[in-house]
Amino acid sequence: MAELLNDYFTAGWRERRHECACGWQGDSRAMQMDLQDEVTDYACPDCGNLLLIVRHPDLAQVRAAAAAGHPEARQQLALLEEAERLLGPR
Ligand SMILES: [Zn+2]
Asked: What's the chain look like in SS3?
């Protein structure tokens, strides 16, 4: 059964080892990635079984994680603020 990760900024989820019913084992970087609007799906590279669903962070989550010192969140927030500065508020 696929695991749903609600907090994108959870430490170490990319490196965590998953086991598929078909016997495949590995972390998210070895899986098949499918980018959707709200989530990214990660499936077994051998049998296509869905193993992990990662919900994309909203702006509030990015801000909270950046404020907590999460390096990736700080980068994302900087990009978001740069885009806002260039495009203006919408
Ligand atoms: Zn599999």
From this structure: CCEEECCCCCCCCCCCCEECCCCCEECHHHCEEEECCCEEEEECCCCCCEEEEEECCCHHHHHHHHHCCCHHHHHHHHHHHHHHHHHCCC
The count of domains in the chain is 2
Kindly give the distance from the C-alpha atom of residue 43 to the centroid of ligand 1, in angstroms, as a whole number. 8
Model's pTM, two decimal places?
0.83
* Ligand 1 center–CA 19 separation, angstroms: 8
Residue pLDDT, tens place only, 10-47:
999 999 999 999 999 999 999 999 999 999 999 999 99
Give me ligand 1 centre to Cα 73, in Å: 31
Q: How large a percentage of the chain has pLDDT more than 70?
A: 98
Residue 39 domain boundaries: 1-56
Residues 47, 64, single domain; the answer is no
Are 51 and 7 contained in the same domain?
yes
